[in-house]
Automatic annotation (TrEMBL):
One of its GO terms (molecular function) is rRNA binding. GO terms for cellular component: preribosome, large subunit precursor. This is Putative Brix domain-containing protein. The lineage of its organism: Eukaryota, Viridiplantae, Streptophyta, Embryophyta, Tracheophyta. Pfam families: Brix. One of its GO terms (biological process) is ribosomal large subunit assembly. Residues 319-354 have a biased composition (Acidic residues). InterPro entries: Brix (IPR007109), PPAN-like (IPR045112). It comes from the Eukaryota.
Length: 354
């Protein structure tokens, strides 16, 4: 006679992943979220640039967002609503140049930038002797700093151009606002710097990591406290030589008053409250040089509020026609290449509203 196993299986409580908040508990504002995707066929370097932009927009973006080449903008817009997505960053390529569009959902406006130059994050990393990327670097969104977009306009204009107001508003709203009175210093890990050059009308797009070093503490002592590595004392006569022999500071020593701050709370093992620390910025990429081409009132459509080419929209039409032709060719030739147009399981949990 068959025997039945009546033993009960032990209950294992599932581990619930921490979901990202949709509203800032301090300011009460809605936290902006983004989709980064492409329209048309992209070469390998631009596909890597798209991945770098996704990493930059962390944690309030869909890292595992995948699209089919026959997806339309309406498909992304239908998915964006349930997930609370507020912005689209769209990369495209024409025979002449790559373009980046920053669109606010669901009704615009849309800013179209021509990418004059760009460098990938991996290129920035390989150019540095000591690249820096802590494990929690992308745990919090970056702080956006705008230069050259201030009120009052440029040197030659008494009034700020309206397109500069739109650019500053678009990039400022990409990330959550912070309250200087309540922000945690440990959450300030990255900076996105945008500088507008009035003479060339170009925008420098730079991404930096922030680190603090105590002023007046030797480099050897600082590394020993932070990394907990046993120092090499073979060539020293005494432990005191390890402390006294080391120089102070680094190549970009921040003893200047403009580069030093007094911390309000402890940060790490070395930087203590009420002590001076030097601010160090290290570029982590990506890096871009942008030129504003067009501003549309709607979501990638509508009335043209600004055009770099004035009333002659022939170049703008050529840019849109080339992009549409690429989309049509890809629908015929490459329908079976890409994978599902869905948000991955991790993004499904992270982007879900609480």
């Amino acid at each position: 006679m068959a025997r039945f196993n009546n033993k009960r299986k032990p209950f294992v409580k599932p581990i619930a992943k921490k979901k990202l908040a949709t509203v800032d508990h301090i300011t009460g504002d809605k936290i902006p979220k983004s989709f980064v995707f492409s329209r048309g066929r992209l070469p390998g370097p631009l596909r890597q640039l798209k991945a770098d932009l996704k990493q930059l927009m962390n944690p309030h973006t869909a890292l595992n967002l995948k699209e089919k080449r026959r997806n339309t903008l309406k498909d992304f817009l239908n998915v964006a609503g349930p997930y609370g997505v507020t912005h689209f960053l769209i990369l495209s390529k024409t025979p002449t140049a790559p373009y980046l569009r920053v669109a606010t959902t669901p009704q615009g406006p849309t800013l179209t930038f021509k990418i004059e130059e760009y460098s990938l994050a991996v290129d920035i990393k390989h150019s540095q002797k000591h690249p820096r990327c802590p494990k929690d670097l992308f745990k919090n969104p970056p702080m956006s700093i705008l230069s050259g977009f201030g009120s009052g306009g440029g040197r030659h204009n008494d009034k700020e151009p309206p397109q500069l107001k739109l650019i500053s508003a678009a990039f400022r709203n990409l990330f959550p606002s912070i309250d200087v009175n309540t922000v945690k210093l440990s959450s300030c890990q990255r900076i996105l710097l945008l500088h507008y050059n009035e003479d060339t009308k170009l925008i420098d797009f730079r991404h930096y990591s922030i680190r603090l070093e105590p002023v007046g503490v030797s480099r050897r002592i600082s590394k020993f406290v932070q990394k907990h590595q046993v120092p090499d004392l073979r060539n020293l006569q005494d432990v005191s030589d390890f402390v006294t022999k080391a120089g102070y500071g680094s190549e970009s020593e921040g003893d200047e008053e403009a580069a030093t701050v007094t911390l309000a709370s402890d940060l790490g093992r070395v930087n203590r409250a009420s002590s001076k620390s030097a601010i160090k910025l290290q570029e982590i990429g990506p890096r871009m040089t942008l030129r504003l081409i067009k501003v549309e009132n709607g979501l990638c459509q509508g009335a043209v509020l600004f055009s770099e080419y004035g009333d002659g929209n022939k170049k703008e039409d050529n840019h849109e026609d080339a992009e549409n032709e690429e989309d049509g060719d890809e629908e015929e030739d490459d329908e079976n290449d890409e994978v599902d147009s869905e948000v991955g399981e991790e993004d499904d949990e992270d982007m879900e509203e609480n």
